[in-house]
Amino acid sequence: MAIYDYTVKDRKGNDVSMANFKGKVLLIVNTATGCGFTPQYKGLEELWQTYHEKGLEILDFPCDQFGHQAPGNDDEIHEFCQMKYKTSFDNFKKIEVNGENEIPLYTFLKSQKSFAGFTGIKGAIMKTVVSKIDPDYENNANIKWNFTKFLKIAEKIEKLL
Length: 161
What we know:
- The structure is a single chain.
- The protein has helices spanning 40-51, 74-85, 104-112, 123-133, and strands at 7-9, 15-17, 25-31, 56-62, 149-153, 156-160.
- The protein is α+β, with helices and mostly antiparallel strands.
- The protein is built from 4 helices and 6 strands; from the N terminus they run E-E-E-H-E-H-H-H-E-E.
- The model has no long low-confidence stretch (mean pLDDT 92).
- It is globular and about 40 Å long.
- The strands form 2 sheets. It has a 4-stranded mixed beta sheet with strand order 4-3-5-6, with helices on one face.
């Protein structure tokens, strides 16, 4: 299967075919509104404003699996993002990215690109936090925390943290 063979739900529960995004650069991210990484919405919006007309799509999937940091329903999350970060890209339906209820798109994404380590200023903190939850975190494909990003360029998928 390819990324375009999957269907996801928009925040209203309607089916959205990933085929709608053929020919686009996709930045797929699991988000949370109450996380230390939530201010990344500002940078995501800047990317959206700069590159959307050139073919960038940001696919924002709220996820409450990490520290229950995505409270609220889909409309409340959308309103928070618009009010706090003035986002213009839409949020999809809240999902699970790991486990029995993970959506098939994330099963596919994790199969395409494995975990490559934490980066950035908070990398060392994340290693400590995640290793307490999953001591074998470096050796499995699970999403480790909020704001894990997958970048789809042409026929290649990259996993960014």
